[in-house]
Write a sequence for this structure.
């Protein structure tokens, strides 16, 4: 946390600019593969390279993804929108202009709800973050600097145009964010949304989700914004949070020391856990935007819009509400279950069999998540299907196996696919012993063999009951019905 | 040199082979190139190979289309697979595209025989073909004079009978004005009728590809072959293409009387008397053919030129940004850093007029100037469209001179860009409105230089333009005159 002595006098004003790479099969304006990790300059065409005379043709899937994301972010979808040329010279930009959207973006004026769960109290608080706009644009290529791992010191640069023309959504938030934690949660919620929509893999390491932060600080109560500083180069949500917290502290210290702040772009350095100045801003850049004459304006009909709206899945916030209200799960559990769309799908498919949501949640959040974390696996990597998990719980419910037995066979179920848990426990002789007379015989034998311990119990040392219980479980390999055994044991010990 | 239909007849009757026709055209090109310099590249080998294919088809008894075996010249801003495409610019002197423009692909499929790539003002910016990075083209009627531009090479090639037909591109008059100055037919189709894919962009919202020919019928046949929707061009229109040539009649007999409007504003000052008289006589001929003539005012017509010189350079400044030495084209030697590589390459590679327009456009789009220039020019464009719309409520086609003067002497206007720009005064508003228009020969001046009349049609009414132009052509003999090149 930033210095507590100053955090009461200053507040941060933060907005995020997020670039989200869409997972369409082909690029935004050319029928060329968008596959990540291909050898340099293999996913290219004359169109991607801006050869003379070539023309862009909009990939309709990009428009659909943009509109659906706009709807998911509660935006107004523009009935009339257009593309513009954003002009600047850079070797990774084949035409030396980027086809983007300027004054008529496809979506504007939305919001998303973030939910922050206190790590200690596990209580949730909600906050609405405004979305200024969302627009479509093409990505640039990539420069690879040779002779050094940084631009400075390199002898020459190589250009890889594979990424040139990969579709992007740029999503700009209102400056409603106040802390690093809120920013990280905003980014995560955005990622959940695009993943739920299935329009992007939201992978920050591969750069398919990139967040730039605009941050300034001001005394609490002041209306005017402070000096705006941009932070780039964060490739995880925790880096976003740390970079912001670092900046808040740095800027606060500077202001308190009477040092001026400059409008600048700073880079987050993961190694040293600090931000460093990249460039000071000299006025605003002039991109000489003008309407792209090679692409007709975009008009989304009402019918098309309603069609796309009807195809929207249940979104993370709605799902969280439903889990908390209808299923009675805790905010913390809900968050874990809804964070990862595969986990969510698993959970939903398990409860679709009629299994108890709380129990499924407990198992998922407990042993299964523990296993996933320790093995660094995803829920989709395990052999245990949602149906099998439901069956396991149903066997406990019916008294066929004990909870302990269930936990014992879980590791096997996680790694080996089975058709039926019932058959498995049957073949392993793991079914629960609920035969009262058989248990009574065992208890009688134990009481006869341990008269001293029976004495102690009857003298008031009731804890000794655990000894008898343990012995029976030992003899039955844990298969004795614990509830029944306990009941019988108490009766026999009391005489 | 015979017409397309005549060549087709000769081929199917096996009177001449495609190889013979091609060889003859190539010989004529070779003989006249020292005088005209219409071509930047002559593609003799590929032409003979294409002609042989056509002959093989004929020999096999296969049906061939009208354009099969017909020699054609292509403006060098249309991309052609494996053949240099320079746009008349030094910056692309080593550029060989790995793809065909849609129009050249269609022509190839139709069996047309490309004999070469023609000269042009660099990146189609100019009205005289003097702005070429590879030397000027001469007007076949007077070698001292310019052929017009920017498609001067294509116009000269057709006028000089180096080949029967050619393709050009027209952004502000670049087909019609050289057609007028060279005494041939040239048409700019409705914006979106012909795919621009593979046409190296000058001003994307104005550029259109169109035909040059010695007769209206040949132009109609060629347009039909290249027109039509192309999924690779988002601005291409989804429309059915009529069989233009089959609609032609020696006289026009429309259901109702054909109404022709004379654009008042094009007969003002700056128009050479001889041009004015020739066009007025041509209008009388149209009247005799049965047209109803009236004078129409397009009050904002004259604002077309200034609006054009904001919009076209603005688009060009972006379109030409890609020539940065990174991916193709020339790269200047001895640059120490990126900025120098850009600056040196572009300084060496671009000519004066191209640099002028890049600067004009860059300025017009700059923050603080955008509203005053680019946005205002777009508003003017809308007003000009409205003028045309209003005019077309009263008439079916509009008529004007194509160019205010006949061909001028090389060097006469190179020092004065504004005077040069005025050459396109009559043609520019048509591009701004996206309308179809053609230029047809309608006389000669006292020096024997051709005069052209411009006919402007409603959107997608190329058919009417062709019909009127054809009827006019059939009742006059201007198009039958040829420059006397081989003896001069």
């Amino acid at each position: 946390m930033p210095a507590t002595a100053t955090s009461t006098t200053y507040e941060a004003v933060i907005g995020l600019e997020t670039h989200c790479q869409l997972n369409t099969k082909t690029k935004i304006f050319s029928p060329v593969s968008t596959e990540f990790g291909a050898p340099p300059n293999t996913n290219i065409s004359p169109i991607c390279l801006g050869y003379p005379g070539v023309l862009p043709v909009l990939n309709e899937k990009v428009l659909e993804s943009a509109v659906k994301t706009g709807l998911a972010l509660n935006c107004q979808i523009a009935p009339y929108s257009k593309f513009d040329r954003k002009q600047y010279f850079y070797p990774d930009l084949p035409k030396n202009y980027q086809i983007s959207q300027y004054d008529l973006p496809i979506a504007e004026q939305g919001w998303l709800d973030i939910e922050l769960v206190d790590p200690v109290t596990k209580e949730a608080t909600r906050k609405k973050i405004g979305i200024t706009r969302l627009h479509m644009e093409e990505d640039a290529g990539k420069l690879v600097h040779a002779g050094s791992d940084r631009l400075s010191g390199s002898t020459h640069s190589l250009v890889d145009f594979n990424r040139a023309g990969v579709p992007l959504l740029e999503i700009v938030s209102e400056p409603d964010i106040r802390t690093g934690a809120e920013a990280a949660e905003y980014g995560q919620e955005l990622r959940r949304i695009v993943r739920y929509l299935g329009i992007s893999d939201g992978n920050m390491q591969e750069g398919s989700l990139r967040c730039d932060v605009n941050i300034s600080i001001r005394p609490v109560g002041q209306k005017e914004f402070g000096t705006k500083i941009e932070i780039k180069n964060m490739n995880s949500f925790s880096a976003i949070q740390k970079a912001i917290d670092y900046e808040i502290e740095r800027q606060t210290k500077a202001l308190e020391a009477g040092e001026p702040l400059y409008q600048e772009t700073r880079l987050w350095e993961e190694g040293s856990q600090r931000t460093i100045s990249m460039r000071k801003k000299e006025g605003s850049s002039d991109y000489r935007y003008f309407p792209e004459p090679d692409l007709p304006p975009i008009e989304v009909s009402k019918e098309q819009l309603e069609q796309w709206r009807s195809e929207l899945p249940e979104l993370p916030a709605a799902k969280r509400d439903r889990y908390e209200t209808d299923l009675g799960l805790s905010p913390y559990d809900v968050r874990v279950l809804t964070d990862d769309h595969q986990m969510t799908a698993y959970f939903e498919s398990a409860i679709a069999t009629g299994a108890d949501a709380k129990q499924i949640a407990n198992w998922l959040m407990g042993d299964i998540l523990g296993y996933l974390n320790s093995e660094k696996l995803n829920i989709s990597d395990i052999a245990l299907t949602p149906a099998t998990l439901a069956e396991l719980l149903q066997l406990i419910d019916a008294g066929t196996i004990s909870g302990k037995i269930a936990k014992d066979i879980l590791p096997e179920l996680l790694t080996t696919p089975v058709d039926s848990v019932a058959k498995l426990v049957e073949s392993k002789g793991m079914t629960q012993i609920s035969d009262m007379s058989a248990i009574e015989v065992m208890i009688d034998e134990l009481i006869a063999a341990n008269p001293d311990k029976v004495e102690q119990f009857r003298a008031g040392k009731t804890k000794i009951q655990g000894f008898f219980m343990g012995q029976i479980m030992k003899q039955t390999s844990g298969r004795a019905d614990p509830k029944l055994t306990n009941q019988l044991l108490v009766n026999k010990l009391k005489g | 040199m015979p017409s397309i239909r005549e060549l087709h007849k000769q081929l199917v009757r096996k009177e001449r082979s495609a190889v013979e026709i091609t060889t003859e055209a190539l010989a004529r090109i070779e003989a006249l190139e020292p005088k005209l310099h219409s071509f930047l590249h002559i593609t003799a080998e590929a032409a003979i190979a294409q002609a042989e294919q056509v002959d093989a088809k004929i020999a096999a008894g296969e049906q061939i289309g009208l354009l099969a075996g017909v020699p054609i010249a292509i403006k060098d801003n249309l991309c052609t697979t494996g053949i240099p495409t320079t746009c008349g610019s030094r910056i692309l002197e080593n550029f060989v595209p790995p793809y065909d423009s849609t129009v050249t692909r269609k022509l190839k499929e139709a069996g047309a025989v490309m004999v070469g790539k023609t000269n042009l003002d660099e990146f189609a910016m100019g009205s005289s073909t003097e702005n070429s990075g590879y030397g000027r083209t001469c007007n076949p009627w007077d070698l001292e004079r310019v052929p017009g531009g920017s498609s001067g090479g294509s116009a000269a090639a057709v006028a000089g009978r180096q080949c029967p037909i050619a393709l050009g591109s027209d952004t502000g008059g670049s087909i019609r004005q050289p057609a007028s100055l060279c005494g041939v037919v040239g048409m700019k189709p409705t914006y979106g009728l012909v795919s621009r894919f593979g046409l190296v962009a000058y001003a994307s919202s104005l550029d259109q590809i169109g035909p040059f020919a010695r007769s209206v019928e040949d132009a109609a046949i060629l347009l039909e072959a290249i027109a039509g929707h192309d999924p690779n061009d988002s601005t291409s229109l989804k429309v059915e293409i009529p069989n233009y040539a089959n609609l032609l009649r020696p006289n026009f007999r429309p259901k109702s009387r054909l109404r022709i409007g004379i654009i008042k504003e094009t007969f003002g000052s700056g128009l050479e008397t001889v041009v004015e008289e020739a066009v007025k006589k041509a209008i009388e001929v149209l009247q005799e053919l049965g047209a109803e003539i009236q004078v129409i005012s397009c009050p904002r017509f004259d604002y077309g030129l200034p609006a054009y010189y904001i919009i076209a350079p603005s688009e060009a400044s972006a379109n030409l940004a890609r020539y940065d030495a990174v991916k193709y084209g020339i790269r200047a030697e001895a640059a120490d850093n990126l900025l120098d590589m850009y600056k040196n390459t572009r300084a060496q590679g671009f000519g004066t007029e191209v640099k002028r327009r890049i600067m004009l456009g860059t300025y017009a789009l700059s923050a603080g100037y955008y509203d005053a220039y680019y946005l205002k020019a777009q508003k003017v464009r809308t007003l000009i469209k409205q003028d045309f719309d209003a005019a077309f409520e009263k008439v079916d086609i509009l008529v004007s001179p194509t160019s205010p003067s006949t061909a001028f002497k090389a060097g006469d206007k190179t020092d004065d860009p504004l005077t040069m720009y005025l050459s396109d005064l009559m043609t520019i508003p048509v591009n701004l409105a996206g309308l179809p228009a053609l230029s047809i020969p309608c006389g000669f001046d006292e020096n024997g230089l051709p005069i052209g009349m411009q006919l402007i049609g409603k959107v997608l009414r190329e058919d009417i333009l062709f019909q009127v132009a054809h009827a006019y052509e059939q009742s006059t003999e201007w198009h039958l005159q040829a420059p006397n090149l081989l003896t001069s």
Notes: Chain B touches chain A at residues 77-79, 85, 87, 92, 95, 97-99, 101, 196-201, 203-205, 231-235, 314-315, 317-318, 321-322, 324, 326-328, 338, 342, 362, 365-367, 370, 374 (CB under 8 Å).
